[in-house]
Amino acid sequence: MIIIKKFPFEYTRFERARIIGARALQIAMGAPILIETSKNEPLEIAIEEFEKGVIPITVRRKRDSFVWLEKYDMF
After folding, report:
1. Engineering a disulfide at 59: which of 8, 69, 73, 75 sits with its beta carbon 3.0 to 4.6 angstroms away?
2. What string of H, E and C letters represents the secondary structure of the chain?
3. What's the pTM value of the predicted model, to 2 decimals?
4. Within a domain: 63
5. What is the mean pLDDT of the chain?
């Protein structure tokens, strides 16, 4: 059984850390920034993007059934 949940939903602290870390690495490698910000550090920018909910990502959780967390409001 697959359950699909749309935003807003709660990420676990591990999902949050993985999303922010992956996005900070992308920014450090030259990916475009998705928000207007005055910050320069990739980690700070990634945290701000996460808090504003603009990082397009799908999280797959494996429990008794798969739960996909999808956010597609940018596309």
Report:
1. 69
2. CEEEEECCCCCCHHHHHHHHHHHHHHHHCCCCCCCCCCCCCHHHHHHHHHHHCCCCCEEEEECCCEEEEECCCCC
3. 0.73
4. yes
5. 82
